[in-house]
Amino acid sequence: MTDLIARARVVLRAAPTWLTATSVVLTAAAHEISTLAPNGGEDIVRWLITAAAWLAAAVMIIRRVTPVDPDRRGLLAAEGGER
Predict the structure, then answer these.
(1) What is the pTM of this model?
(2) Which positions ≥6 away from 56 have C-beta within 8 Å?
(3) Backbone phi, then psi, for 47, in 5-degree steps?
(4) Is the CB of residue 49 less than 8 Å from the CB of residue 32?
(5) Under a CB-based contact definition with an 8 Å cutoff, are residues 30 and 50 in contact?
(6) Phi and psi dihedrals of 14, rounded to 5?
(7) What is the pLDDT of residue 77?
(8) Residues 15-70: pLDDT tens digits?
(9) Torsion angle of C-alpha atoms 63, 67, 73, 74, degrees rounded to 10
(10) What is the Cα–Cα distance from 69 to 15, expressed in whole angstroms?
C-alpha cells in the first residue's frame, strides 16, 4: 500500500498531470466561455479554446520530458553551432 501511495504522490505532483488537468478543465469550460463572444462567434471561440488548451498542454509536456543540453536551450543556437 505504501508503494501505491508513493506512486500516486509522484503522479499528482508531476507537471504533465496538472497541464493535462488544466487542458481538460478549459475544454469543459469552453462552452461557457464561448457565450461571452460576440454574436455568431460561439462555435469558433469554443474550437479555438479547445485547440489552444490541447496544444499548450502538449507543448509544455514535451518541453518538460525532452532532455536538452543546457547550451542548446532557448530559441537561438549557441554561437558556432547549428540546430
Answers:
(1) 0.58
(2) 19, 23
(3) -65, -40
(4) no
(5) yes
(6) -75, 140
(7) 56
(8) 788 888 888 888 888 888 888 877 777 888 888 888 888 888 888 888 777 787 87
(9) -10
(10) 20
DSSP state letters, the chain: -HHHHHHHHHHHH-HHHHHHHHHHHHHHHHHHHHTTSPTT-HHHHHHHHHHHHHHHHHHHHHHHHS---GGG-SSSPPTT---
| Rg, the chain, Cα only | 19
Nearest to 54 by CA among 21, 11, 12, 15: 21
- Going by pLDDT thresholds of 50, 70 and 90, the confidence category of residue 8 is confident
